[in-house]
């Protein structure tokens, strides 16, 4: 569904990704781990179109993404939830609604989906708190819900459970299973322990700029 | 639009408006506020006054951005006409220049006799003299006086201020110095100043104002008709009377000098 | 010199809707508010683009913009004069000595200040903001509007500064307006006139009138901005020394 | 009218160190740079305090500060004139029509603009910044300096704006300086003089000289700021539409 | 060593802490867990002096902290490492040095300790990267090292391992043991699973604004 072949990216001369390849199939959950600074976040950003790789090629739905630009259609089908998500300083509800408006979904449907998201992420108690003042876990839950309402076909999660409590973590795990059941492809960057509950996921490791099958020793 | 362009008895908005560029002295002294409403009422024109420095007023006229100019700088006025920017220059009024200074008169110019002698005395006593320094009519007059006095050799007390008459008077007052001023501006500001008139009546101190229409051949768009109407009125017995009757503190500031339309 | 008397008199005339004074005030407000309304979108877009996009010559443009702040308003007035004069290329438009010409001048004057402020504001914004908007499917336009909404506090400061600058400037207004009584005489040119007459206290009184009006405009702008974000700070008394 | 000729002439005189022109340039630079050096610390402290500390009357002070931006420089000049006039309370100091008086005027003019910019910059800074500094043991002063260092890009914009404002203002400089040749005549007052003489092109040429100098000052300031932080943005070509 | 008695704090009328009491002894490691939004971060901020409690009293070294102000001496003895730490946009080295300068430590000693911190947190590869561009885990490691160099007597960690890889996590766990051995008091907010390796720690739970011993069911 979404793939990268031999992608390379360097920051100020320091190679972070180097002939890095990865592929996710519809309905698949893929857990990517790796040391701090190994380039996991960078790879997600490349896959999300936020960074243009220095070399290599991306593929979507079996077709190569040409060198010119990262197509709108791919972007629309894809959601990326960063480790420390940014919330607009409007309201919790407006944050959840933001993508729906951008996707020009009609108001009734938007209201329905926003309400569902508030319920799903258990945000009722904080729905009136200014978003910038929410707790770490609350922010992360809102960001996850904000991606979820858009019903993406590929989701890239960067350490999605790092600040979550037990219940929320279980919920994210359930969400991932649910997404996969609906043929969504899910790529999760995690320091493994976070998602030990996630059954049936394929595990990969990023080291020296490349993605590899993890050997027990290198596992993070 | 077509209507507006059609010649007729009804004047269009542009034709009803007269733009006059003038020096600040006429506007600031209050003369124009006294004069123009009478004209406007009688002839149905609106006069828009742009008051700037002498040089700027002539420049605006030369560019065709005014219909007529009212200034006092004889040489520059003649140059303006000679260059074809203006026509029909007329004398309209005059006042005179005076040398003012502190009551104590440290340079003792009260008794110097002539204007040129006064200047010499100011130099000799190393007193302060604030010059307009801006090529205005007043500044030209000052330079002429210096020529009579044997030339200007600058001394530390000679301050070339590069500002308008009102400002220079304020500065001279503040610095307890001398300056050359037109009587109109000085009279209108006298209540705010400690300066007094020390030298006056010298024949060389006459300050004639001229009024010049902008050349409609050069600038076909100008309201030549309006300009002419205003000039005619200003130089008419009625206009001249009105100029003569303009007074501040019971004193006339300007004296009619029109010789009638030429 | 007694300042109280003329100030009280000016404020009294303001309050009692003295037509001569209000005529001047109205010119000031009309010209400056129209100029601001015209220039703000353009200046904000420029500041935003300079902050957000990398392109060749960007740094140069920023330095140029900052330098434009040092361009005397009278020089802007002179250039505009040459353009609008009957002898100038746009002389046929007959805009010289009109409020329209003053508006154009103020647009030019306000542009660099509002752009520079916007640039600083957008540059200080969280870089994840724009990215998040785009990721959620916003077009570049929608994302830009979202960024601007988040920095609205600083944007209001930008517009306020621009307003302060144009409503008080005299060089250009004199040059292209001509300070014509009842037509293009605004508060600053009226002050210049009073000053040249040596009527200092009247000038100051008009200045205070301008301050009062600016205060009113700023209070309105401050209110539209809501609470403002404000940097939450540690309780200074509790955590002192 | 030909602008090229007088501009080339003015720039040539600038380059050939024409003493008459450089005298004027030197007055402009000396007065404005000293004023800026004096006012910057004070204005930055004020902007910082208004951004960081909650105290009664804070909102009011911010609105007042913004309104001060609309205070015409000629009115500041008039007030200062009344203060320094020999009839005024500080008349004995004999400061009127000196560069010192011009400096004082420019200090007052630059203050609100630099404060307002600083306020906006500090308010936009990450709130964790100050807190982190304090937690690591910094005194309030050290923490404040750390915050200011982090927003240095915006602070440089603040100082640049202040410089642009004072170096080009004419109202106050004329009023308290007097535009005395060789003493208090700076570039803007010289421009005003040329303008009143009808020497419009010479005025514009001087304005361009001022621009060139401002550009030089801004380039220096831009270089001290290093790369500037800049908002990293998505590659616009890659992620377009 | 550091204690709070009956501390209360409300945000915009919503009570977050309510008669909340906690006490940490020298050499003790205390793990505090709780649901997202239960007030863990708020409690740490109160203990660090960053928030002034609406009611209740703090104690340090057996003496009450008077209502007037949070004393400088306490602040000096204490370090708080937030979940998403802020790094100054200077350099990695200057970040580590910042507190040492503020504590007026002499330059030689500062250089020595900074170098030790770089080594300890394995920061050599990123020592020249602009701090704002570091990876999530790198930032967290720098913040931990930045507190560590100051040799605090009390350390308050807010989810210190949430973005760390396996090796770094083990290192933080080792650091905590080391700190406790040196009679430092350590309070760690964590979603429990993160610090399962931490032996000998006392465990507490924050719920409904109060700190309680965890029952197996409520454990997060
Ligand atoms: N914009 C940038 N400029 C320079 N270096 C960068 C930039 N972004 C990332 N890096 C460096 O690239 C390396 C990879 O960063 P990345 O964020 O991808 O790591 P990661 O695998 O996600 O680490 P973590 O587990 O800590 O989140 C890091 O060493 C980081 O310092
Ligand atoms: N400044 C504030 N204004 C209003 N509400 C706030 C503020 N700070 C925190 N809150 C609210 O107080 C509650 C407690 O927040 P806190 O950050 O202490 O939670 P937490 O236990 O640390 O949660 P997490 O596990 O998600 O980090 C949250 O619901 C949060 O939304
Ligand atoms: Mg990462
Ligand atoms: Mg928390």
List the helices and strands and how they pair.
The complex is a heteropentamer, with 2 copies of chain A (220 residues), 1 copy of chain B (262 residues) and 2 copies of chain C (241 residues).
Chain A: E1 2-11, E2 14-24, E3 29-34, H1 40-47, E4 55-60, E5 63-64, H2 72-77, E6 78-81, H3 92-102, H4 107-120, H5 136-148, E7 154-158, H6 166-181, E8 185-189, E9 202-207, E10 210-212
Parallel strand pairs in A: 3-8, 3-9, 6-7, 7-8
Antiparallel strand pairs in A: 1-2, 1-4, 4-5, 9-10
Helix pairs in contact in A: 3-4, 3-5
Chain B: H1 2-5, H2 13-16, E1 17-23, H3 24-28, H4 31-43, E2 46-52, H5 54-62, E3 68-71, H6 74-82, E4 86-101, H7 115-124, E5 129-131, H8 137-148, E6 158-160, H9 165-175, E7 179-182, H10 183-189, E8 196-199, E9 206-214, H11 224-235, H12 237-244, E10 247-248, E11 251-252, E12 255-256
Parallel strand pairs in B: 1-2, 1-3, 5-6
Antiparallel strand pairs in B: 3-9, 4-7, 4-8, 4-9, 4-12, 10-11
Chain C: H1 4-15, H2 19-52, H3 58-68, H4 73-84, H5 99-124, H6 127-135, H7 140-150, H8 152-168, H9 171-177, H10 187-196, H11 200-224
Helix pairs in contact in C: 1-11, 2-5, 2-8, 3-5, 4-5, 4-9, 5-8, 5-9, 6-7, 8-11, 10-11
The structure holds adenosine-5'-triphosphate (2 copies) and magnesium ion (2 copies).
One adenosine-5'-triphosphate (ATP) sits between chains A (11-12, 16, 34, 36-42) and E (126, 129, 133-138, 163, 165).
Features:
heteropentamer, B: 262 residues, alpha/beta, eight-stranded mixed β-sheet, two-stranded parallel ribbon, 12 helices, 12 strands, elongated, disordered N terminus, C: 241 residues, mainly alpha, MetI-like fold, binds adenosine-5'-triphosphate, binds magnesium ion
